[in-house]
Design goal:
The chain is an alpha/beta fold and 269 residues long. Helices cover 49% and strands 15% of the residues. It is built from 10 helices and 7 strands. It has a 7-stranded parallel beta sheet, sandwiched between helices. β5, α6 and β6 form a beta-alpha-beta unit. α2 packs across α8. The longest helix is centred in the middle third of the chain and has 29 residues. The protein starts with 6 loop residues before the first helix and ends in a 6-residue tail after the last helix. The chain binds NADP nicotinamide-adenine-dinucleotide phosphate (NAP).
């Protein structure tokens, strides 16, 4: 899928966090295909450099790589310094991860590190770049959350709470920034084919539905950004499930899925 974002509104530069893999990488690709220069942010330098070179070659855009662990204090300052002279019209605050498991078996250090990455990094990015976008009176902010997180996800309790924060933050900013000409959309990510599924043990046999393709996930989000919708759940079937499934049943389903993923026997039983 090829993007078609208006360079005048959302360019000349876009910044994407978590661009080394999965959804962030695909955002970078679709934005570059629209002719936007890209700032690629993550921890894995080699993957960012390789992606930047590919995009420059394929689409003739410029790129800048910023190596940053966004769970660390001071990460946002580093990001703002590394981009201070660039005219950034679109920010995709996507970097994030989680740690499936029993809540009490995950140490407070890990839970706090994840909470910083999954909430404070988005907050810092929205605050710094939000000011810049409002000064330009045009542009966009995409915050990446998770479908169903606001209803609670057993065995992902801390990460679901963090994603619920992103949804609320983004929906609020959508309304605040709209009169200033700045679009804000929250991607309520459904299960999407990226490396994180394997990392979490979420194999096809235990998922109730086929994960959507990363290309579709990003394409639908950019369409929602253009239309200035407050949230987007890519995939019709996902939208229907989210609308009709009672929260307690969704939690029951997620508990079963993660129990299987976490505690399956080597034979797969
Ligand atoms: N795929 C799904 O089914 C799904 C569902 C719900 C929500 N999401 C959300 O979608 C977003 C993208 O996930 P994905 O599926 O594309 O997973 P992914 O392939 O694992 O990509 C995660 C990205 O985040 C970056 N990242 C992780 N920790 C970081 C840190 N401490 N500092 C800076 N960057 C960091 C990673 O880069 P480095 O490792 O190079 O730093 C990577 O580029 C995440 O926020 C995730 O929670 C995904």
């Amino acid at each position: 899928m090829k993007g078609s974002l208006d360079q005048k509104l959302f360019g000349p530069w876009a910044l994407i966090t978590g661009a080394s893999s999965g959804i962030g990488r695909e955002f970078a690709r679709q934005l570059a295909s629209s002719g936007l220069n890209v700032v690629l942010v993550a921890r894995r330098k080699d993957m960012l450099l390789e992606l930047g070179r590919q995009l420059a070659k394929e689409f003739g855009v410029e790129y800048r790589v910023v190596i940053s662990d966004l769970s660390e204090e001071g990460a946002i300052d580093k990001l703002t310094q590394a981009t201070c002279e660039l005219d950034i019209g679109l920010i995709v605050s996507n970097a994030g991860t989680g740690q499936p498991g029993k809540f009490l078996e995950i140490g407070m250090d890990k839970l706090t590190e994840l909470l910083r990455l999954n909430t404070l990094a988005h907050l810092g990015i929205a605050h710094h770049f939000g000011q810049k976008l409002l000064q330009r009176r045009q542009g966009g902010l995409v915050l990446v959350g998770a479908m169903g997180a606001d209803k609670g996800i057993p065995y992902m309790a801390n990460d679901a709470g963090a994603k619920a924060y992103i949804k609320s933050l983004g929906e609020s900013l959508h309304a605040e920034f709209k009169p200033m000409g700045v679009n804000v959309v929250v991607l309520l990510t459904p299960t999407t084919e990226t490396p994180v599924l394997e990392k979490f043990g979420l194999t096809r046999d235990i998922l109730p539905m086929k994960p959507i393709k990363v290309e579709q996930c990003v394409y639908e989000t950019l369409e929602a950004l253009k239309a200035n919708r407050s949230t987007i759940i890519p995939g019709v079937a996902n939208r229907i499930i989210n609308a009709i499934m009672p929260s307690h049943l969704l939690r029951l389903m997620m508990a079963k899925i993660f129990s299987k993923a976490l505690y399956r026997t080597p034979s797969g039983g």
